[in-house]
UniProtKB/TrEMBL annotation:
It comes from Caldilinea aerophila. Coiled coil: none annotated. This is Sugar ABC transporter substrate-binding protein. Residues 1-30 form the signal peptide. It comes from the Bacteria. Keywords: Signal, Transport.
Length: 474
């Protein structure tokens, strides 16, 4: 695991983080979102700009300002780091970053918000954190920036994002808090050579075909037909559990906001997962993204359903043995059709930052997610949320995963693949525990689903969804 540290930031950050942890430890955890942070006064409108808008002119009042970003050790963030010198050269704004494991990224940001330490200006918002961060007042609505002519690039074009991405990753209760960044859909990655050697001319179209036809043919000699990343944590709850219930007609909640895991469709998907395990590595409940990606890349697994952002690992000869064999398809269909996983992030502006840092952070977010930089970002290894980039014939030929990715976002995207309300982290922990126990056989699928239904309803009831205290937003 890489040690987290700020680029160009010294020991002061560590001291401030310790202070934040001490403060947080003195306060009991609550199921309700924290009270909104006290926000700095809205920045005064930047000086009127003479002539045509340019990034350099917009950044002049903020030259020398330093901003701090939360990054992950994933291809999309390395791509952003590669492009950063251009932004810094144009603007004179210093962009620092801290690379941290995903598993720690929410906790560290929440400690920063609640401790009012102001360590982070550019906030990383997972799709399932947007409700919590917005409702708690930890990130600021972006309209204060994109409605300011001095800060808003005339070519911003919010309508140029895939609608499902701007809606799911950046918007809560009809207010935009983040711009889509490092966006994913689940994709079926497969080893074309392994499939051809087994007599298949393409990947399975349905989950049942994967299990009943491809599974027996490809699971032999220490190799496996499929791997479903299922380590306890968000990987279990989102990448494994939720991925299985949707294509079989299930869901976490029904149309009345009631837990729905004991429905026929949800149980069918979870029981299917149990049956599919005979064609997976025996320790699959210990496999996270890295193990799953490496399983395919090293030729030990024939197929995986993984985030599109991991494509760079399969096409790099230094990390993959199947560069010439990698294939892509939409995730298999269940009885109700394909329901590929949806995941990713947006970048937002911290409510704790000074007005100058907020403006500088907005300029960076606007630039790194822009249509103008989308192709460069993709070539550097990122996955852009901009529709125009995927229409480029040269990029389409260079990146064949574009086709299933775009189809998934446009035709099958599910904005509530995981609910985005503030209670999801608590629910996710429960699913991760019981979902793992289901896979290990220490609790039956039916008993586990009943237990989760009861626990989830209690959480939502205490939060005020059934009494009308809180709107039923997902």
């Amino acid at each position: 695991m890489q040690t987290s540290r700020f680029h160009r930031i010294g020991a002061l950050v560590s001291l401030l983080l310790i202070f934040a942890v001490v403060l947080a430890a003195c306060s009991p955890q609550a199921a309700q979102p924290a009270a909104p942070a006290q926000q700095p006064a809205a920045p005064a409108a930047a000086p009127a700009m003479e002539g045509e808008w340019t990034l350099a002119k917009a950044a002049e009042p903020y030259k020398g300002v330093s901003i701090n970003c939360v990054f992950l050790d994933r291809p999309g963030y390395r791509a952003a780091i590669e492009l950063l010198p251009e932004f810094e050269s144009i603007t004179g704004i210093d962009v620092n970053w801290e690379i941290m494991p995903y598993e720690n990224s929410r906790e560290k940001q929440v400690l920063d918000f609640t401790g009012m330490t102001g360590n982070y200006d550019c906030i990383l918002i997972d799709v399932v954190w947007i409700g919590e961060f917005a409702a708690s007042g930890w990130v600021v609505p972006l309209d204060r920036f994109y409605n300011d002519p001095a800060l808003a690039d005339p070519e911003l074009n919010l309508e140029g994002f895939f609608p499902i991405l701007l809606e799911s990753f950046g918007t809560w209760d009809n207010v935009i808090y983040g711009l889509p960044f490092d966006n994913y859909s689940g994709v079926l990655f497969y080893n074309r050579c392994m499939l051809e050697e087994a007599g298949f001319d393409g990947p399975p179209k349905t989950w049942m075909e994967l299990k009943d036809v491809y599974g027996p043919a490809l699971t032999k000699d220490g190799k496996y037909a499929f791997a479903l990343q299922s380590r306890r944590g968000e990987t279990q709850s989102a990448d494994s559990f939720m991925r299985m219930i949707w294509p079989f007609g299930g869901s976490l909640l029904d149309e009345n906001f009631e837990p729905n895991l004991t429905s026929e469709g949800s149980l069918a998907g979870l029981n299917f997962r149990q049956d599919l395990m005979k064609y997976m590595p025996p320790d699959i409940v210990e496999w996270d993204h890295d193990e799953t990606v490496q399983g395919l890349a090293q030729g030990n697994v024939a197929m995986i359903t993984e985030w599109s952002a991991f494509n760079a690992y399969f096409t790099n000869p230094e990390t993959s043995r199947i560069v010439d064999c990698i294939g892509y398809a939409v995730e298999p269909a269940g009885p109700v059709g394909p329901r590929p996983a949806l995941g990713g992030f947006s970048l937002g502006v911290s409510a704790n930052s000074s007005p100058e840092k907020q403006a500088a952070t907005w300029l960076f977010i606007q630039w790194i997610t822009s249509e103008a930089k989308a192709k460069d970002y993709i070539r550097a290894g990122g996955v852009s949320g901009r529709m125009s980039a995927y229409e480029d014939p040269e990029l389409q030929a260079q990146y064949p995963y574009f086709e299933p990715l775009v189809i998934s976002w446009k035709e099958y995207g599910n904005p509530i693949f995981r609910p985005r309300f503030p209670e999801w982290p608590a629910i996710s922990e429960l699913i991760a525990q019981t979902g793992t126990e289901m896979m290990l056989g220490s609790i039956s699928v039916e008993d586990g689903a009943r237990l989760l239904n009861e626990q989830i309803r209690q959480i939502l009831d205490q939060a005020g969804y059934y009494s009308g205290q809180r709107p039923k937003l997902q």
